[in-house]
């Protein structure tokens, strides 16, 4: 609810279900979830997951494709920075 108020959005049931499935999958096996483009994966679901999973004891790392790196970093900084009152840092790394 805080995310909805902070960003002036309404989280759709579909987005909520995907986020809940990602946080605690129904099966203990690997799973794949798919949403069509424009359904809020980067702007709503990812900030919702990061806000829920980062509990002060765990560091959350969001891994995104290179093409979405700048957009995702800006979205997380804008949406979570104000909500939690902390600076969200982008730390690039390479697997090389």
Biggest sheet details: none
- The low-pLDDT segments are none
Question: What is the number of helical segments per DSSP (H or I, 4+ residues)?
Answer: 4
SSE string, helix = H, strand = E?
A: HHHH
**Terminal residue distance:** 40 Å
> What is the count of distinct domains?
1
Structure class:
mainly alpha
Q: Mean of the pLDDT scores?
A: 81
Strands, count: 0
**Radius of gyration over all CA atoms, rounded:** 14 Å
How much of the polypeptide forms β-strand, as a percent range?
under 5%
In helices, the fraction of residues equals 40-55%
What shape does the CA trace take? globular
Structural notes for this entry:
With 96 residues, the chain is an all-alpha fold. The chain has one domain (2-84). The chain has four helices and no strands. It has helices at residues 2-7, 13-23, 41-53, 69-84. Helix 2 crosses helix 3 (41-53). The mean pLDDT is 81.
What secondary-structure arrangement, pairings included, does this model have?
Elements: H1 2-7, H2 13-23, H3 41-53, H4 69-84
Helix pairs in contact: 2-3, 3-4
Outline:
By secondary structure, the chain is an all-alpha fold. It contains four helices and no strands.
Keywords:
96 residues; mainly alpha; 4 helices; globular
């Amino acid at each position: 609810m805080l995310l909805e108020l902070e960003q002036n959005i309404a989280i759709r049931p579909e987005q909520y279900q995907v986020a809940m499935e990602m946080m605690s999958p129904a099966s203990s096996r690997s799973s794949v979830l798919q949403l069509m483009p424009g359904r809020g994966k980067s702007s709503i679901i990812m900030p919702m997951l990061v806000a829920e999973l980062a509990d002060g004891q765990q560091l959350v790392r969001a891994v995104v494709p290179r093409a979405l790196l700048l957009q995702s970093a800006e979205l997380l900084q804008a949406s979570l920075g104000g909500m939690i009152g902390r600076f969200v840092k982008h730390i690039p790394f390479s697997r090389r």
